[in-house]
Amino acid sequence: MITVEHLARQFTAPAAGKRGLSFKRAAPQVVKAVQDVSFTAPDGRITGLLGPNGAGKTTSLRMLAGLITPDAGRMSVDGIDVVARPREALSRMGVLSDARGLYPRLTARENIVYYGSLHGLSRDAANARAETLAAMLEMTPLLDRRTDGFSQGERMKTALARALVHDPANIVLDEPTNGLDVLATRALRDALRYLRTPEGGGKCIVFSTHIMQEVERLCDSVVVVSHGRTVASGSVAELLAQTREQDFEEAFVKLAFAEEAARHLQEVKA
Ligand SMILES: Nc1ncnc2c1ncn2[C@@H]1O[C@H](COP(=O)(O)OP(=O)(O)OP(=O)(O)O)[C@@H](O)[C@H]1O
C-alpha cells in the first residue's frame, strides 16, 4: 500500500540568457511543480494518477521513487517512510520511471538479471524471473537481443520486466503506455490486471497518464492532479456522479480545469 500526503516540490529553473541589449540575466524562475498531492493506493487495486501535461505527475512519482526529495509532505510504502528509510521502501517497490535507462550493450535478459542481482537474487532465480516476466509481457523472443536498437515499446517492456524482477508488492509506473502500439498496450493492460489479482500477487499498482481511456479501462481508483494539486479522487463512476457528467472526458475537464473555467467566466463577466 502506498500513501502520499501533502507532497510538495518546487524547482528553480535556470535563468535564460542575457535579455536584449541590457546584458542582465533574467531572474531564475521558481516552478511549483507539485504543491499539494495526496492519495492512497491500496493493495490489489490499480490507482491512476490522471492529469494534463505539466500537472506534476512525473515529479510526484519521482519523489515516491526516491529520485528527488520533497520540500514538504510524507510518503510511505507498506508503512515505511520513503524519506526516512529509502532503501527499505524502495525494495518494496518496482519503479518504471520516465527515463527507461537500459544498458544498451547488454541483452534484455542481462539487463533484467543484473537488476535482480542488485536486489539480492541469485543468478538462477533472476534468470527464472526474467523468463516468467518475459512470458507475461509477451517479449520472450527479445530476451537474448542487445537492447541497443530496441523500439520504444521493446525498451518499455524490458524496463518493466527489470522493475518487477524482485517481485515487489508495489508497482509504480510513469506513463507506461507511452509509445506503445495497440497490441503492446493491451499486453501491458492484461499484465497489470493480472498483477492486481490474488493469483498475480494482489499488487498495489500506481500509474500516471493523461489518457482518459486508459484510466476508464484499467483503474479501480483515479486521482486527478492539476496544477500540482490533487483536485479529485474516486472511481470513474464516482467522479462521473460528482461532476454530473455521462462522459469521463467531460468530467475530467471539469475537474482538472475548474480554475481556468472560473477565471474565464470572471473575465467574460467583467
Ligand atoms: N527539473 C525541473 N526543473 C524545472 N522545472 C521542472 C523540472 N521538473 C519538472 N518541472 C516542471 O514542473 C511541472 C510539472 O512537471 P511534471 O513532469 O511533473 O508534469 P507531468 O504531469 O508529468 O506532465 P506530462 O504529462 O507532460 O509528462 C512542469 O511545469 C515542468 O516544466
UniProtKB/TrEMBL annotation:
Keywords: ATP-binding, Cell membrane, Membrane, Nodulation, Nucleotide-binding, Transport. It holds the Pfam family ABC_tran. PROSITE patterns: ABC_TRANSPORTER_2. GO terms for molecular function: ATP binding; ATP hydrolysis activity. InterPro entries: AAA+_ATPase, ABC_transporter-like_ATP-bd, ABC_transporter_ATP-binding, P-loop_NTPase. Residues 18-252 form the ABC transporter domain. SMART domains: AAA (SM00382). Coiled coil: none annotated. Belongs to the ABC transporter superfamily. This is ATP-binding cassette domain-containing protein.
